Amino acid sequence: MFQHLPPLQSLRALEAAARHRSFTRAAEELNLTHSAVSHHMRALEQHLGTALFRRVGARMIPTSVGARLAERVRIGMSELDEAMNEARAGVTPDATPAIVRLEISVMTDLAAQWLIPRLSRFSERHPGIDLVVRIHADISAPDPYSVDVGIWHQRVEATGFVTRKLLDDFVIAVCRPDVVAQIPDFTVADIHQLPMLRFAHRSWRDWQVAAGLPPHEPTRGPIFDDSGLLLRAAIAGQGVATTRSLLVRDALAAGELVQIGDVCIPPSLEYHVNWRENHPREPAILAFWDWMQDEIAAMTPLAGSPFKPRRP
């Protein structure tokens, strides 16, 4: 039994190297030397008779076989970890059901402005599921095998993945109420009288054209590379900003911000939820997906919104 299994340390090295795309970082995590990790990988490749990694510049990229094996090892190690935790706690088959741990990778702005404030409601509905939220700041998607669920701007096109659009979002302009109140009888046409906050990844022009205004790109003031910081600046009263409606729903509901007019334009990027087909934790994943859709469906439509929450 288990006669085909290599040493556990080799499998741990494989999982870490595939996740980090680096033998050096895997060695640091496992408190090994770089040469030890290299030795483990060579031994595994000889044992299996196939390559597990290929070098691309300074990165070690797992082959399709290596990526799949690393993912299976990751799942197995996670199951072992949960089993050890249950044994340590004295959990028996007749005791409370084991907690399912689900690793979620999510874009920074969506996590901070929408997901995290609602997580307590997910825990109340699904007390048997623990979410491990990993923040992803890069606009490009990470390794889709590295987590159970990825909420990114990209669709995972690889075979064997399920990809669903989170919702049809749109971009609006928002400002703090007292800033708008400084201009008597304010209308959308007066927006140029307000400080117009700039975002590195979005121009003001599309919104202004949709509002029937002459395009006027501001040339002064700070430029924000992070949408969360842009919203904080708007809430602090520094000016008017364009933002995804999903990210600003709570601030609008709390009266911290108001929507300028009813102009809505499509965003340049969407949010996609990705997971592997036949995932061993698929019931928990579907519970998480259904909960997100219920949260979205419960949101109050904004003025002028041409888009509605969607379900597959």
UniProtKB/TrEMBL annotation:
- Judging by the UniProt lineage, the source's domain of life is Bacteria
Cite the HTH lysR-type domain residue spans from the record. Answer: 6-63
- Phylogenetic classification of the source organism: Bacteria, Pseudomonadati, Pseudomonadota, Betaproteobacteria, Burkholderiales
State any GO BP term from the record: DNA-templated transcription
Name used for this protein in its record: Transcriptional regulator
* Pfam families linked: HTH_1, LysR_substrate
Which CDD domains does this chain map to?
A: PBP2_GcdR_TrpI_HvrB_AmpR_like
One MF term in GO for this entry?
DNA-binding transcription factor activity
Read off the InterPro entries from this record. LysR-type_TF_proteobact-type, LysR_HTH_N, LysR_subst-bd, WH-like_DNA-bd_sf, WH_DNA-bd_sf
Q: Give the family from UniProt.
A: Belongs to the LysR transcriptional regulatory family.
Which keywords label this protein? DNA-binding, Transcription, Transcription regulation
Question: SUPFAM superfamilies this protein is in?
Answer: Periplasmic binding protein-like II, Winged helix' DNA-binding domain
List the source organism: Pandoraea anhela
